[in-house]
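Quick one:
INPUT:
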């Protein structure tokens, strides 16, 4: 299964020592203290706000349902110097106990016992004396260990925060790195940030502004990554010099020593996602201002690549500089870590504006022509995958519009995946999540929605859709703990829930996905070796019009290749009056395929062979010669209008089953409802055969269906169910649904909006398979049989269901497992040299009826009671069974006299390799082992069914088979081709 993931989180540094997170010191009367030593400790009497977790204040309210965090307990205080320690008179919420002073070490120790009910902790240090201070006053090396930790603990981060962050595969250090907060201008030119200006772990705080410090120390960020065993996603400050970047790379790789203490580098095996600054597109002012002015300064200095094509647009320069500077930072890290072409350790990532995939389309051609292929420097490109409601009138309205707007994120993600895949990169999201903040009463509804249990499923659905649309690494913003407000929705968990984060619906929603839960990738046009792959050409995956291609235009289609191999590519076109032959160049994943091909109007043109690997690929058609209205004298010169693109495998895989084409299956009973009907015709130029069947135009749910087919559709393990559809471009439906009946209608897949409320959402009875296909051309709908609970089942009915609009349908059936390639060992005769045998009243009986599944003959079992079989052994050319293979044989059960059990046996020197279907009546071998493996229920009688079982289940991987036995208990059956399927 093609899949993507996992999920990350924006990190925070929650220290056991509460003093590491304090802001600036003030005097006892509240004024800012300017007298501080080199490490930031006050050299006079001072006051410090240690914790301020108040809720429902003027800056974070109103929130009538806010719950304040409980900060009560015994804090262990120590510092160098002496002082009278107390709370301020206006906030007396702790007492001082067990105070002592050791003159030899100049150390004061005490316990601060904080009472419940006041989440504000302020400590005064009065009457200070400190021999270590240059003034002889003040305090230094202050530590305040939180309740529940030993005063001598070496634990750096709180247990609650470590437990909350450990499940996530990646932590992004946006806030600790302070990427949004660096000054961009120093009074005369853009600022620079030297390594000597960075925060040190020995500084008095990791959060104050003393000496103009910004951010926490990188040493602590590395410690958090090591403590949680998570990859680091770092934001390199915009003004950082090349030396700063080099020193940072060295620190991450090798660690360093500060104040006599060694701080290790990043654990081997952990990765570094490398992002330059943050939202330089303008999402935050400082990064945007720095990048924009640095680009202009570079161009003005001369010799810059940013305007090497003569561009005079400063915005273009800035957009290009983002790529250029990320490339330069990549090179600096590689000088320290060494070459990393597979991105095993250093993964440079780009994060542009949400929904703005056009940025990459517009800037990558410049980058490629200037420096080379982007994939040589960048691991991933992406955006922030936020989404929000459009209706705040009630909590229910918020969830309705959230769900509707979330559906639209699939197409956006698919767009980014298309561009990323073309350039050989991953689609990543630097941050994202539901965005609900608002003002007034709407803010109260937003708060209620954030806390509503429905948010769990909403968040989970979004990230499942992210993976399904081809998204890779994604980071949820923000985490883990914070205080919600009507206008700040970002904390993943409220601080009051820190000891039990599962109380937060948002946290629950992502927790199951955090460790890399996999989701089948449904993005792109599904491409099967066993199918005639055809898809519309007038609109590409990115939604761009390609109906009358212009010179220089590109069109990109994301391909979801189920079976790798060589495929022939062709395109059909309409006639355009007065047109001369145009010309296109085919590209696959940024590689030219052959040379330009002339494209004539009103024809089907072969464009060459595509070497497609299983997985995602992006096909690009670049118009070398197309319409060009500025090219006189003929405005339609080189004009051509595409109809459809075709991809055919050079070697077609076998076993595809077309069940419905030109008529319903024999014996089926048809029906319809909601204003629909069965209308057969050829109005849309059928995809297959000579006619198709059309849904009526109607509002709401409407469908036509059939049941009771005499010959069922047998669905095997690993199969994909498919149907071809053509949406009316003038009246497209809001939802398509396919339903299959195996005795019940509880097997449904839908595309588009979730409006037909049959079954249970997220289960086999209502499985979301993707977005609506483009209207105006044939598209193949496909869904894994496993997703709708039909593996190993026999289907006798189908329903073609719409919500609103109109569509035309054509052939439907099953496609074999991904990568399946059949080796047919038995067909029309037993293998050469084999010796045939039978027992129990059976015999080898070759016949032509029922109509063979393959070839011209089948072999029938006799009708007998109890165990009976025919078999062969000692084949001259054995059947070689590889790792991962599936063994198969086709069977047709006599509907008038079906057996109670079917058994297949394979001989590799012994007959100890058996699989059976139905009742366990043939007591050979040991039940539950490879010698008697239960492979499923009996298939439906009266039609051909493929029996299949993994070679591993019957102990045959890597073995050579020289015989097969076709065994029954009671009844009668007919057999056809048998062998192996790889993949």
């Amino acid at each position: 299964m093609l899949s993507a993931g996992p999920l990350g989180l924006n990190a925070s540094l929650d220290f056991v020592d509460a003093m590491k997170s304090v802001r600036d010191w003030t005097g006892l009367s509240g004024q800012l203290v300017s007298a501080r030593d080199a490490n930031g400790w006050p050299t006079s009497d001072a006051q410090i706000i240690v914790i301020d977790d108040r809720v429902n204040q003027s800056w974070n309210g109103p929130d009538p349902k806010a719950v304040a965090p409980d900060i009560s307990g015994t804090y262990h205080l120590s510092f160098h110097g002496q002082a009278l320690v107390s709370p301020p008179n206006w906030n007396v919420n702790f007492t001082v106990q067990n105070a002592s002073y050791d003159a030899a070490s100049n150390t004061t120790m005490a316990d601060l016992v904080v009472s419940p009910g006041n989440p504000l902790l302020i400590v005064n240090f009065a009457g200070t004396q400190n021999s270590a201070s240059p003034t002889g006053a003040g305090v230094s090396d202050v530590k305040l260990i939180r309740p529940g930790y030993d005063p001598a603990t070496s634990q750096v981060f709180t247990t609650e925060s470590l437990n909350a962050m450990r499940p996530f595969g990646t932590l992004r250090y946006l806030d600790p790195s302070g990427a949004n907060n660096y000054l961009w201008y120093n009074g005369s030119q853009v600022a620079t940030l030297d390594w000597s200006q960075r925060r040190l772990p020995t500084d008095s705080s990791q959060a104050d502004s003393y000496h103009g410090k910004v951010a926490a120390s990188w040493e602590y960020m590395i410690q958090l990554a090591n403590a949680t065993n998570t990859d680091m996603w770092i934001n390199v400050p915009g003004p950082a010099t090349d030396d700063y970047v080099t020193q940072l790379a060295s620190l991450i790789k090798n660690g360093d020593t500060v104040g006599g203490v060694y701080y290790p580098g990043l654990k081997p095996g952990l990765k570094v996602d490398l992002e330059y600054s943050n939202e330089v597109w303008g999402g935050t002012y400082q990064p945007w201002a720095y990048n924009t002015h640095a680009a202009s300064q570079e161009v003005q200095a001369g010799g810059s690549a940013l305007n090497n094509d003569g561009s005079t647009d400063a915005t273009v320069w800035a957009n290009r500089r983002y790529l250029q500077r990320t490339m330069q930072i990549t090179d600096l890290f590689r000088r320290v870590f060494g070459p990393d072409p597979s991105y095993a350790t250093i993964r440079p990532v780009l994060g542009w504006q949400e929904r703005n995939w056009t940025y990459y389309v517009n800037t990558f051609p410049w980058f490629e022509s200037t420096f080379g292929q982007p994939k040589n420097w960048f691991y991933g490109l992406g955006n922030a995958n936020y989404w929000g409601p459009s209706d705040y009138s009630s909590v229910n309205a918020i969830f309705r519009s959230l769900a509707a707007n979330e559906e639209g994120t699939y197409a956006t993600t698919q767009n980014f995946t298309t561009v990323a895949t073309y350039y050989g990169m991953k689609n990543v999201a630097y941050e994202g999540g539901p965005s609900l903040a608002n003002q007034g009463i709407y803010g109260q509804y937003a708060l209620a929605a954030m806390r509503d249990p429905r948010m769990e499923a909403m968040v989970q659905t979004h990230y499942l859709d992210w993976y399904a649309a081809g998204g890779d690494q994604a980071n949820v913003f923000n985490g883990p703990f914070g205080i919600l407000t009507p206008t700040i929705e970002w904390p993943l968990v409220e601080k009051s829930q820190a000891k039990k984060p599962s109380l937060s619906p948002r946290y629950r929603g992502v927790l199951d996905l955090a460790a890399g839960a996999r989701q089948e990738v449904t993005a792109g046009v599904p491409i099967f070796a066993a199918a005639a792959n055809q898809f519309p050409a007038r609109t590409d995956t990115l939604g761009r019009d390609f109906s009358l291609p212009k010179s220089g235009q590109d069109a990109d289609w994301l391909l979801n290749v189920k079976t790798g191999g060589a495929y022939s590519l062709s395109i059909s076109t309409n006639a355009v009056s007065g047109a001369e032959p145009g010309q296109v160049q085919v590209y696959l994943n940024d590689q030219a395929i052959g040379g330009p091909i002339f494209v004539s109007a009103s024809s089907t043109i072969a464009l060459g062979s595509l070497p497609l690997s299983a997985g995602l690929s992006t096909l690009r058609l670049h118009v070398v010669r197309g319409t060009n209205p500025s090219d006189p004298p003929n405005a339609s010169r080189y004009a051509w209008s595409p109809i459809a693109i075709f991809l055919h495998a050079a070697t077609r895989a076998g076993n595809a089953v077309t069940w419905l084409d030109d008529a319903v299956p024999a014996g089926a009973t048809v029906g319809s409802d909601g204003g629909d009907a069965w209308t057969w015709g050829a109005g849309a130029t059928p995809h297959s055969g000579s006619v198709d069947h059309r849904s009526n135009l109607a509002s709401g749910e409407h469908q036509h269906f059939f049941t009771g087919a005499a010959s069922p559709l047998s669905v095997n393990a690993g199969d994909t169910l498919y149907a071809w559809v053509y949406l009316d471009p003038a009246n497209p439906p809001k939802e398509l649904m396919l339903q299959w009946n195996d005795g019940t209608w509880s097997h449904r897949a839908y595309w588009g909006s979730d409006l037909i409320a049959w079954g249970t959402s997220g289960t086999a009875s209502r499985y979301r398979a993707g977005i609506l296909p483009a209207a105006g051309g044939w598209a193949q709908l496909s869904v894994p049989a496993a997703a709708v609970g039909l593996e190993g089942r026999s289907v006798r009915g189908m329903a073609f269901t719409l919500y609103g609009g109109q569509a035309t349908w054509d052939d439907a059936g099953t496609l074999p497992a991904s990568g399946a390639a059949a080796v047919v060992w038995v067909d029309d005769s037993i293998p050469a040299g084999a010796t045939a045998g039978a027992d129990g009243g059976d015999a080898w009986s070759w016949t032509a009826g029922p109509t063979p599944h393959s070839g011209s003959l089948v072999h029938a079992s006799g009708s007998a009671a109890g165990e009976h079989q025919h078999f062969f052994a000692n084949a001259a050319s054995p059947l070689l069974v590889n790792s991962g293979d599936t063994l198969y044989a086709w069977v047709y059960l006599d509907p008038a006299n079906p057996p109670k059990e079917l058994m297949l046996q394979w001989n590799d020197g012994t007959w100890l390799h058996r699989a059976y279907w139905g009742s366990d009546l043939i007591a050979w071998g040991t039940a539950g082992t490879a010698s008697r493996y239960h492979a499923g229920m009996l298939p439906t009688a009266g039609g051909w069914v493929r029996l299949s079982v993994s070679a591993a289940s019957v102990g045959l991987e890597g073995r050579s088979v020289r015989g097969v036995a076709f065994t029954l208990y009671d009844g009668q059956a007919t057999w056809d081709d048998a062998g192996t399927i790889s993949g």
